[in-house]
Amino acid sequence: MSEAFSGKFAVVHCGQLVTMAGAPRARRGPAEMRELAIIEDGAMLIADGVIERVGATHALRASLAKEKNIGIIDAQGCVVTPGFVDAHTHIAFTGSRAAEFEQRIEGKTYRQIAAAGGGIANTMRATRLATEEQLLEQTCRHAQWFLRTGTTTIEAKSGYGLSLEAELKILRVIRSLGQKMPLRVAPTLLAAHTVPPEFQQDREGYIALILKDILPQVQRENLARFCDVFCDEHAFTLAESRTILTAAKQAGLGLRMHVEQFAADGGAALAAELGAATADHLECTDVQGIAALARSNVQPVLVPASVFCLGRSHYPQARAMIDAGLSVVLATDFNPGSSPTTSMPFVMFLACQQMKMLPCEALTAATINAAYSLGLGDTVGSLEPGKAADFSIHEFKDHRELAYFAAVPNLPQVFIAGQRVETCPETFSRAVLQGEL
Ligand SMILES: [Zn+2]
Known about the structure:
The chain is an alpha/beta fold.
């Protein structure tokens, strides 16, 4: 971080100040999701990292005329939005899956690679071997990538440890990440990502480990806010998912679920039955599943970049979900196998291009709706008095260009709690500029 403004400062001449102000809940359905509450030539007054006032630049200027020692940031007519909130990431891992990327290009499927010991198991081996310091170092590197495109809050899952020690190590690293980096982090236990190799012949044994050892220890150390399960015929069945999530709920954790990525198998209905905060993926979810989510107010978290990166064409039915009154969320699903991207603009582009969401709906899904899905809607996701000053100044004059020009490497000015975030990694530039023979 740099350029700390102590005390008060104002951001003025925001060509479009996208405030997302409104009722204190996630936006549902097309009308609410299209309402961005934009202030033309807008301004914000920020004090001690919190937004104090929001309004038109001329009005704010007039009211501040007598105040002294107020720093000014001139946004020069650019678009200013809340920082992106990425509600589904697998940020903490080590190793690379570049070789598998090549294998997939040459025709191998994700499942064939997994059957040969690749996929999640590949990343699991590397992540288990890494020390806490090594894992933290690589995770911080990933965090820089998120910050660079304007993401200021993420959800972060474990799930590449799959043993008591390794899952705890990952969750401790996720906690350290939130302390070491300006990024806000909501931690999720995903011990039920897949059954690890040593339990292939003893699924019940692994589930017992989650219930009797991992979950209680995570609760004791207060290491997670949510519990997630990958519910799929190749991961955990509906019955196994229900068992694990019921225990997690009793332990006081919110619930998130990977469901119906490859088949409409009742995962969405289970998320509704359990009162999950979110049901994620939903590529195959049909009208009955959508209706079940709507009845229980479960937020769908759609991850189109993982569909795209797997080379598939079956995207979730975002339009039907929005029309059914759901408060849709977009996320990257950043992970080394199926979604190697940290860019919310890229996800918004895919949401528009492939799922027919409008740019305004995509922006809502990437900010305020995502914040509420993490239980953080009172703090972040919109630019309103009393909320954290987490925002980005983009180089565009029209907010729709955030999604439209997503493939352009535009680097916004990013602020978290009123502090400007340095998005060029210092360690990298130092290493490049100060090499020795
Ligand atoms: Zn995921």
